[in-house]
Write a structure and sequence with these properties.
The complex is a heterodimer. Chain A is α+β, with helices and mostly antiparallel strands. Chain A contains 9 helices and 19 strands. In chain A, strand 7, helix 6 and strand 8 form a beta-alpha-beta unit. Chain A is globular. In chain B, strand 1 and strand 2 form a beta hairpin. Chain B contains 13 helices and 2 strands, in the order H-E-E-H-H-H-H-H-H-H-H-H-H-H-H. The relative contact order of chain B is 0.12. The chains are: A alpha+beta, B mainly alpha.
Chain lengths: 335, 310
């Protein structure tokens, strides 16, 4: 159980910056999700925390201890890899016991702690199997059991759900949240999946091109995105961004989420419907407004406009962004 | 009608599948014919001839042979010459295979790092694979022969007089060193390929868990190299039992038969049975059986402990 503090972390590979001046405070007991598209530097940042990568510059603190030049063993972190990194020649029990074995813990204690970790994740009946004899979800749980067995201060997880099918991913998300609450430990979790971030994180850090875009709770980041990038990365379909002057008389970019647009034939803002997607629980109306494409989300029981028809739109909960920096502009009207 | 319909369909289908099977067999035979004929002419026929020839005793010209019966195989196997050559070959394999494997793994692990200049070391370590036995043997001959050898001068003692290749106690070791060196490139390349197949995150996981270098080797590298090491050990054992050039060029089977291996007994100029094709064939067939048994033993004995991945 510990906090993690990153101060001005830079990491370059052959002159290319993978992580560019990132400072981040991860509180004790946080479930911090590092979120961003492929190549944004989130995995590199996680590897810097775990000690697998040495930062080019900057400092890493775990608790109050400077660990920048400290071996992973002394950092007291556990890592769960995307591929699970289970030893294929060892049984589930031997896999779970391995971190204890390398620390010289007695065989009897190892077995007891491995059994306890396995039981907490429903793996008791698989202890004598090899990883190849397990399903993807079971392997993922073995990787988790191997991480929790030595009760580390910080858990680092690098896209651990990405190899699971959609149904199992949903179930495992809930299990991970429950595990985090049970262990009351600090989790640092990397993903490119905004649903994982929104559903699991207590706080999230959105990254783009090696830089930190925004840090906050999922609700904060969704409600008040700090930049056009965050606004469009969080939310599905993404936030509509209208150029200056397209939907209101101002010189800033205007962002409106699809669910914050209503169809009202009497409204002065006119749009032409391109096509309609009826998804059962909701309807997505794709239309052209102010010279740009926009998406409107309607409830499933709302009247559906016909394709190629002209409709009126009412925009609410507007967000404003600087057209040059693309950063959020806080105005009285955007709340 | 309703009952005859399906049976007619079934008999038609049966006839069609019969004709199709015949056509498939014809096509299969045509496709297999080239490789089968090569296998037959160059492997199966000579093997059959050798087995039959092993029952015979022949004069030095090989023109006049008389059948001595299958028991000739038993006689040859029990003969002092065969037993001694078998012992020499077995000791030679015991020297070359484990040492060759350990050195190959050690060198491959040493250069299995993404560091500048490692490519040069990989080239150097694998270069012996492109060196013929003749060249390797001559090189070691010039190193070890007391009259011209540099190593003989450096080491002194037995190496200088009578020379490592001329002493009964050291000759087999000297030939083994040459053979280990010549085969090192092969082992190095095979193990390097095996190492590259081990996922990096297994090492990283062990590293984060606090495993030392030795623990990472013993818990990740070595078990994950199992199939590679099994393959390399079977091939190296086969090579050790079939080595001929080193013995012929370095020691000529001597001194006093201390380096007369099975292959040298069969082919060598100084061999006692060099003038009898029948006895040579019997020895060759026995060597084939020994090698087959050894390979089976290695594979059956080790395979269960070898992990072949998911």
């Amino acid at each position: 159980m510990a906090s993690v503090r990153l101060e001005s972390i830079c990491k370059t590979f052959d002159g290319v910056a993978a992580v560019d001046d990132v400072s981040l405070e991860i509180h004790d007991h946080d479930f911090m999700v590092l979120l961003g598209p492929s190549g944004c530097g989130k995995s590199t940042l996680l590897r810097v925390i775990s000690g697998l990568e040495e930062p080019t510059s900057g400092d890493v603190f775990i608790g109050d201890v400077l660990v920048t030049d400290v071996e992973p063993k002394q950092r007291d972190v556990a890592m769960v890899f995307q591929s699970y990194a289970l030893y294929p020649h060892k049984t589930v029990q031997a896999n779970i016991e391995f971190p204890l074995k390398v620390r010289g813990i007695a065989t009897k204690d190892r077995a007891a702690r491995a059994a306890e970790a396995a039981e907490s994740l429903g793996l008791t009946e698989y202890l004598h199997r090899k990883p190849a004899q397990l399903s993807g979800g079971q392997r993922q749980r073995v990787a988790l059991a191997r991480a929790i067995v030595r009760q580390p201060a910080v858990f680092c997880m690098d896209e651990p759900l990405s190899n699971l099918d959609a149904k199992l991913r949903g179930e495992t998300r809930a299990e991970l949240v429950a595990l985090h609450q049970r262990l009351a430990s600090t989790f640092v979790y990397v993903t490119h999946d905004q649903v994982e971030a929104m559903t699991m994180a207590t706080r999230m850090a959105v990254m783009s091109r090696g830089r930190l875009e925004q840090v906050g709770t999922p609700a904060e980041v969704y409600a008040r995105p700090g930049s056009v990038f965050v606004a469009q990365f969080i939310g599905m379909p993404p936030m509509n961004i209208f150029p200056a002057g397209a939907v209101e008389a101002s010189d800033v970019l205007v962002g409106v989420r699809p669910e914050h647009i209503a169809v009202d034939d009497a409204a002065p803002l006119r749009a032409t419907v391109s096509h309609v997607e009826q998804l059962g629980h909701e309807t997505l109306v794709h239309c052209r407004v102010g010279g740009v494409n926009a998406v409107v989300r309607l409830d499933s029981d709302a009247p559906v406009p016909a394709a190629h028809s002209e409709v009126g739109l009412v925009l609410s909960n507007r967000h404003h962004f600087d057209p040059v920096t693309t950063k959020r502009i806080d105005t009285a009207g955007d709340r | 009608m309703t009952r005859r319909g399906p049976s007619r369909v079934s008999s038609h289908a049966h006839g069609r599948s019969h004709g199709r099977a015949r056509r498939d067999w014809g096509l299969a035979a045509a496709l297999l014919a080239p490789s089968l004929s090569i296998l037959g002419v160059f492997v199966l026929y000579p093997l059959g001839r050798a087995i039959l020839l092993g029952r015979q005793r022949c004069d030095p010209s090989g023109d006049n042979c008389r059948t001595n019966g299958w028991h000739q195989y038993v006689d040859v196997f029990r003969s002092r010459e065969f037993q001694q050559a078998f012992g020499v070959t077995f000791r030679f394999a015991l020297m070359t295979v484990p040492i060759g494997l350990v050195l190959g793994v050690a060198l491959a692990v040493l250069v299995d790092k993404q560091l500048r200049g490692m490519g040069a070391f990989r080239t150097i370590f694998s270069s012996t694979v492109a060196t013929s036995v003749a060249v390797a043997s001559l090189m070691w001959f010039f190193l070890l022969e007391p009259s011209v050898g540099v190593l003989a001068d450096w080491i002194g003692g037995t190496a200088k007089n009578p020379g490592l290749l001329h002493s009964e106690g050291t000759a087999l070791w000297a030939v083994a060193v040459s053979s280990i060196w010549a085969n090192l490139g092969f082992t190095f390349i095979v193990v390097t390929a095996g190492l590259q197949g081990i996922p990096a995150d297994l090492y990283e996981s062990a590293y984060v868990d606090g495993a030392s270098g030795w623990m990472r080797f013993s818990n990740v590298t070595f078990p994950m190299l199992g199939p590679t090491l099994l393959f390399a050990s079977v091939v190296l054992t086969g090579r050790a039992f079939q080595s001929y050039g080193e013995f012929d060029l370095l020691t000529g089977g001597g001194p006093n038969g201390s380096t007369t291996s099975l292959t040298y007994l069969i082919y060598g100029n100084n061999s006692l049975i060099k003038n009898d094709q029948g006895l040579q064939s019997a020895s060759a067939v026995l060597l084939f059986i020994v090698l087959l048994a050894l390979a089976l033993l290695q594979i059956r004995g080790v395979e269960k402990r070898v992990h072949y991945g998911n």
